[in-house]
């Protein structure tokens, strides 16, 4: 069954189809387009109309455009509309309207993508799940996700982000969720908002999109929880808070982080439960409470969701832990690498440092003799006027006391480098490129290495460089 016929897409967008075509998918990128996709010629860094011919050559079923691009015949398979972005939104709106799926929407300063993936896993045993790719959470990512949703979807999980005021509410109304989650509120995008209070109000706007009778789920442990609670009460009578605070409806009672897993005791629906996720971090256990609340509100079986979470681990770049066997040419033995190189703000930095502080380096396996906890930290972007103080403040994070070496990447991270005690101070470099060729000198067998920074800091280059020192080893393997 086609995802979109020419007639359906034309009806949804008010556009004109030049031929009769059928699309199996929707794409905005010719680099990843698949045969049968409808190519959406968005205007971004470059005008997507420049790539329509290439998309059709690669097998696209049709292209969504405002005009016939130069060099193409008027008989080419096109859907001609007044504005491509508006038409994509219309297509997403129609995609949402024609399905009977139960929909969850997730936002938060930290943990959106990992919570989305956690909920995808929790629902995966219980029906056909459609969820956003990667971090497709902005003005084109949300409608694209909705436009890609098959008609027979049982559950949909939509991630909603923001970088400026007024972005979340329209996307939430487009998604029309039955469940809306706010994972947390923290200093992210301060440059645009000026205060965390402003960020809290923007995150709370996700509840504006709730369907009648929908469920609002929010973090009970925040200074800004009252803002979230007030917005939730205005939107619905069905409210669930989660956290470690006694007032939380779903409460984390205890948590233990061990190698490759986090286990905890909690009370959900006044029932004691034991929960587990297959990755390290107290914050993952907290967000698992939100996921379990959401799965039940969507009509899924919470017991089956709990079982599914036991095997869940985050996607690459979101705090994944892997063990690398170093090549003999470098040294014998293994290191543990925590890849958290996709995003960063003060709250997520604190969470990642806490995971590192709780890790267990191994002694007497490397040249140095004593295993170390090493942090390679890249700039946190979009923090506004307070960025210098927020970077320097990481030196006072309690978890830093357990970290032996901190390497800093980027002009903003120089403030942290200067604030660190000399004994803990590693290298500071302007760009990640400057450390790539020194990767072998930064680590030693037995070390646990955290790499974290905003995507723009490009510390993912250092993740790749460290991986190239050896090869991955299954974390379940026993040390010889």
UniProtKB/TrEMBL annotation:
Its EC number is 6.3.2.10. Residues 24-89 form the Mur ligase N-terminal catalytic domain. It is an enzyme of class 6 (ligase). The keyword Lyase does not apply. One of its GO terms (molecular function) is UDP-N-acetylmuramoylalanyl-D-glutamyl-2,6-diaminopimelate-D-alanyl-D-alanine ligase activity. Residues 334-454 form the Mur ligase C-terminal domain. It catalyses: D-alanyl-D-alanine + UDP-N-acetyl-alpha-D-muramoyl-L-alanyl-gamma-D-glutamyl-meso-2,6-diaminopimelate + ATP = UDP-N-acetyl-alpha-D-muramoyl-L-alanyl-gamma-D-glutamyl-meso-2,6-diaminopimeloyl-D-alanyl-D-alanine + ADP + phosphate + H(+). GO terms for cellular component: cytoplasm. It comes from the Bacteria. The keyword Transmembrane helix does not apply. Pathway: Cell wall biogenesis; peptidoglycan biosynthesis. HAMAP family: MurF. This is UDP-N-acetylmuramoyl-tripeptide--D-alanyl-D-alanine ligase. The gene is murF.
């Amino acid at each position: 069954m086609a995802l979109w016929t020419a007639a359906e897409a034309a009806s949804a967008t008010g556009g004109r189809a030049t031929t009769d075509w059928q699309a199996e998918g929707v794409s905005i990128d010719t680099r990843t387009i698949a045969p049968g996709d409808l190519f959406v010629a968005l205007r971004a860094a470059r005008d997507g109309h420049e790539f329509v011919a290439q998309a059709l050559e690669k097998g696209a079923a049709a292209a969504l455009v405002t005009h016939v691009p130069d060099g193409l015949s008027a008989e080419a398979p096109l859907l001609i509309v007044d504005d491509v972005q508006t038409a994509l939104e219309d297509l997403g709106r129609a995609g949402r309207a024609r399905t009977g799926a139960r929909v969850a929407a997730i936002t938060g300063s930290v943990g959106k993508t990992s919570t989305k993936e956690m909920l995808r896993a929790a629902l995966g045993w219980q029906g056909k799940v459609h969820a956003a790719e990667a971090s497709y959470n902005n003005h084109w990512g949300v409608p694209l996700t909705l436009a890609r949703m098959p008609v027979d979807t049982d559950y949909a999980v939509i991630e909603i982000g923001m970088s400026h005021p007024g972005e979340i509410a329209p996307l939430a109304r487009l998604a029309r969720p039955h469940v809306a989650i706010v994972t947390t509120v923290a200093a992210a995008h301060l440059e645009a908002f000026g205060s965390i209070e402003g960020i809290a109000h923007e995150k709370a706007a996700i509840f504006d999109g709730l369907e009648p009778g929908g469920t609002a789920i929010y973090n009970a442990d925040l200074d800004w929880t009252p803002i979230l609670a007030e917005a939730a009460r205005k939107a619905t009578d069905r409210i669930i808070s989660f956290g470690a605070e006694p007032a939380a409806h779903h409460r984390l009672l205890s948590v233990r982080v061990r190698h490759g897993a986090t286990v905890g005791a909690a009370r959900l629906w006044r029932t004691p439960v034991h929960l587990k996720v297959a990755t390290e971090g107290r914050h993952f256990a907290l967000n698992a409470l939100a996921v379990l609340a959401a799965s039940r509100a969507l009509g899924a079986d919470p017991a089956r969701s709990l079982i599914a979470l036991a095997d869940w681990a985050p996607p690459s770049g979101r705090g994944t832990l892997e063990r690398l066997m170093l090549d003999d040419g470098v040294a014998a033995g293994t290191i543990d690498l925590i890849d958290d190189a996709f995003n960063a703000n003060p709250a997520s930095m604190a969470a990642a440092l806490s995971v590192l502080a709780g890790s267990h380096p191994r002694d007497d396996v490397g040249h140095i003799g004593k295993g170390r906890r090493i942090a390679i930290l890249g700039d946190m972007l979009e923090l506004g006027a307070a960025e210098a103080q927020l970077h320097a403040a990481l030196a006072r994070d309690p978890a830093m006391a357990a970290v032996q070496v901190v390497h800093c990447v980027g002009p903003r991270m120089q403030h942290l480098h200067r604030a660190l005690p000399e004994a803990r101070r590693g290298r500071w470099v302007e760009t990640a490129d400057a450390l790539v060729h020194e990767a072998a000198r930064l680590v030693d067998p037995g070390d646990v290495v955290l790499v974290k920074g905003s995507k723009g800091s490009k510390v993912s280059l250092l993740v790749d460089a460290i991986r190239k020192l050896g090869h991955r080893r299954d974390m379940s393997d026993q040390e010889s």
